[in-house]
Amino acid sequence: MQAWLKHNPIALIGIGILAIGFVPKMLSGEFQRDAAVSQQLTEQRKADEMNAQRMAIAQENRKTLERIANERYNGCTLIVRADDHTKATGLAIGSPVLDGSRPGVNLADGVTVCDQNGVTAIITNGVAAEPAVTTDRAVVESALRRFGYDGTLAGKLHYSAPKQ
Asked: What average pLDDT score do residues 45-61 get?
């Protein structure tokens, strides 16, 4: 070993530099702090990865629900105001929906309902449930036209619809 060090004085200098650099670090506890910071960074990276996965799942769920809502708008029953059945209104998830053709009677389970805002639901246990939302205004406006609404502020619905 001594012979090798005599032939490689630069290696001896390198070992000395490493010793000078590491010994104070070891004595000061800097290695422990570095290890703790490294652990925190690893945990943060894992948390970020999990959040990214959750976001991807949420985005996929939103797309699925939008497809469901778009399909529901093809055959849904539009919700109108209780005080003026010529005007559409918003759907309240978890609330009963009145049958517009039978005063005081709620819609039956299994009926698909929709509103002017892109929200659809299925009547379950007497209330609007299983919501799905679309942001496709063309789909919503197509359904409104199907019920006689012409898209103007003065436009009126021309049918007896469920009331909210």
From this structure: 92
